[in-house]
Amino acid sequence: MAWNPNGAERLMLTFDPAGLTPVQRDGDACVVCHKKWPRPRVKVGRLPDNAPVHACDDCAEALLPAPEGKVPLPRRSRAAMS
Asked: What is the mean pLDDT of residues 72-80?
């Protein structure tokens, strides 16, 4: 996974091609949900050979990291609150 401390570039995930179908590897299906239509347009990462990997709009949003300051707090159990 690539990370830029300045936040100037998008996060680029590297996907293992072994876990993808040929259609996903070719960019003709969403890398997450396998949806083929409408054709996934959001580039969310790459394969080890630098081929782009795409996702549908809904899945691409789910792959984005949480914005700073909006990270959910861990849940507390009642026993821990006593």
From this structure: 69
Question: Between the CA of residue 65 and those of 11, 37, 81, what are the distances in Å?
Answer: 9, 25, 30
The pTM is what? 0.65
Dihedral of CA atoms 29, 30, 33, 37 in degrees, nearest 10, equals: -60
Task: Look at residue 39 in the predicted model and tell me its pLDDT.
Answer: 87
13-14 sheet: strands from edge to edge: 13-14, 42-46, 52-55
Residue 45 main-chain phi, psi, to 5 deg: 175, -160
Residue spans of the domains in the chain: they are 1-66
Q: Are strands 52-55 and 42-46 parallel, antiparallel or unpaired?
A: antiparallel
CB-based contacts of 45: which residues, under 8 Å, 6+ apart? 12, 13, 14, 15, 31, 52, 53
Distance of alpha carbon 48 from alpha carbon 4, whole angstroms? 19
CA nearest 27: which of 8, 38, 41, 7?
A: 41
